[in-house]
Amino acid sequence: MVVAVVYVSCPNSCQLHVLRMGIDGVFDVLQIVETPGEVQPITISHDQSFLYATVRPEFALLSYKIESDGKLTEIGRSSMPVSASSSCIDITGQYLLLSSYAQNALSVSHINSHGIAQSPHQVLEHLTKAHSVMAVADQYPIKSNSILEQQTIFCACLGDDKINLYRFNHNGYLIKGAQSKLMTKMGSGPRHMTQDASGKNIYAINELDGDVLHFVQDEKPRWQLTQTLSYMPVDFAGPFWAADIHITKDARFLYVSERTSSTLALFSIDSLSGELTLIELLDTELAPRGFALSPDNIWLVCAGQHSNHVASYQVDNESGKLTIAHRHSVGDEPMWVRIITR
Questions:
Q1: 67-91, pLDDT tens digit by residue?
Q2: Dist. CA 253–CA 278, nearest whole Å
Q3: Contact in structure between 271 and 252 (CB atoms under 8 Å)
Q4: What element of type H or E holds 67?
Q5: I need a labelling partner for 302 at 20 to 30 A (CA). Which of 141, 187, 253, 291 fits?
Q6: Can you name the residues that pair with 54 across neighbouring β-strands?
Q7: Taxonomically, which superkingdom (predicted)?
Q8: Cβ neighbourhood burial of 164 (10 Å; 0-12, 13-18, 19+)
Q9: Which domains does the chain have, with CATH numbers?
Q10: Contact by Cβ (8 Å): 97, 108
Q11: Strand 95-100 vs strand 86-89: parallel, antiparallel, or unpaired?
Q12: What would the mean pLDDT of 235-261 be, rounded to a whole number?
């Protein structure tokens, strides 16, 4: 019986590793896909039918069909004007958004009826070290708006110490919203973000100062910073080097990966306020870059950027604590992890 299929992007070996994970958390190789360059962010469509990846130095956007067994078949390749450091799909499934850390940009690509992502029709520039992008559905939608217009696009700009907020217009272009940005502390470097199922709580990690930020949406509606909490102990010598952040579907636990210490931080989440409490730090793969939770929240899979391995951990349903199950060798410098069920 297959619990999940795990996708791992390995830029230095120009490969996508596709692993089958059994009910015991043990990995088996399903497929190794050679990519036409260094592959970094990977994103999966809402219906788990397609996977999108970008490569460099010859910038391109690759579209793959996910077969019934989880294997990948390339179905399209589109040119890109910039590289990508992160990607997500908007709430309608029509648009792929890609942030560019190296080229300080955010681009928008239409996904056609065949599931193929097109070259960007919009590129927003002058976003210093745009590290990640996330789409959040409106909790107080205006009924006259189309579904496309009922979302906010968050873009974390590490070099600007802020998170930019955008809205879609009805033509599929990003515009500034009434609330255009969330400022963070100078030198903090906001990096990756996640949201709870309600969409009312947003969490972001600062790569450079060791903090997790909790934003809550009020009824105006505006986003307000309500909590700042360190993901490292007070005696940590640094430098801080956070990488990724994810939340369980039931919004009870949140995890952060930190590469200098090679740890995963576990937080509990208050069911009423959404506030975080640090529970423990767990030693994990060397320089944990990317990780993901399985759709059923039973497993967490973490990639070690400097260990060239992935590790599976069973998630305790009561405490959120992690128990290692298996390690598996992958390609060079694994960065992104995505998991589907089959």
A1: 999 999 999 999 999 999 999 999 9
A2: 10
A3: yes
A4: none
A5: 187
A6: 61
A7: Bacteria
A8: buried
A9: 36-183 (2.130.10.10)
A10: yes
A11: antiparallel
A12: 95
